[in-house]
Specification:
about 160 residues, alpha+beta, two-stranded antiparallel sheet, two-stranded antiparallel ribbon, globular
């Protein structure tokens, strides 16, 4: 980002990053995108097999606490604004509120229509996180292609898998 565009205060962060469910009537497309891509869960007692569950505990610390405004903690990490405004999303028959919303940028979410976790950081530890996130194991595939022939009628059979 250009130096003038970088968020420097909690109010600046709120202009770029949201962790709240938008109003369904005022912003129906954004609401649908948040509903589809940015709700964490269900997990915990509703789904212990969710990948975020390790030894019966949440590894991603959801649900997050409600906060009236964004604040930066002593380590420099943001604690995003999460209003307890009564807005909910039902996913897999479970009601989720703002405490289960993954941080997102509304413009990017609407433009690309996919899960994009947007975080504010000014820490060098972000390099480690980004490397881990980009190269995480479950996004890789090993494939082998080979050719076989049928001995019965010598017709070449191709195993497309």
């Amino acid at each position: 980002m250009h130096l003038l565009d970088k968020p420097r205060s909690p109010d600046d962060i709120d202009k770029h990053i949201s962790t709240e469910i938008p109003d369904k009537l005022m912003r129906p497309k954004l609401y649908a995108a948040v509903e589809k891509f940015m709700v964490h869960g269900p997990c915990g007692k509703y789904n212990n097999s969710n990948p975020c569950m390790l030894n019966g505990r949440y590894s991603k610390f959801y649900p997050k606490l409600f906060r009236p405004r964004t604040a930066i903690d002593d380590a420099g990490f943001p604690r995003y604004k999460r209003s307890d405004n009564g807005r909910t999303i039902i996913k897999k028959n479970i009601t989720h509120d703002n405490s289960y919303i993954v941080p997102y940028n509304p413009s990017l979410l609407l433009k690309y229509g996919c899960h994009i976790n947007v975080e504010h950081t000014c820490q060098t530890s972000a390099i480690k996180y980004l490397f881990k996130y980009v190269y995480k194991e479950n996004d890789r595939v090993t494939a082998i292609c080979y050719q076989t022939t049928s001995e019965a009628d010598t017709i070449q059979v191709v195993d497309k898998i």
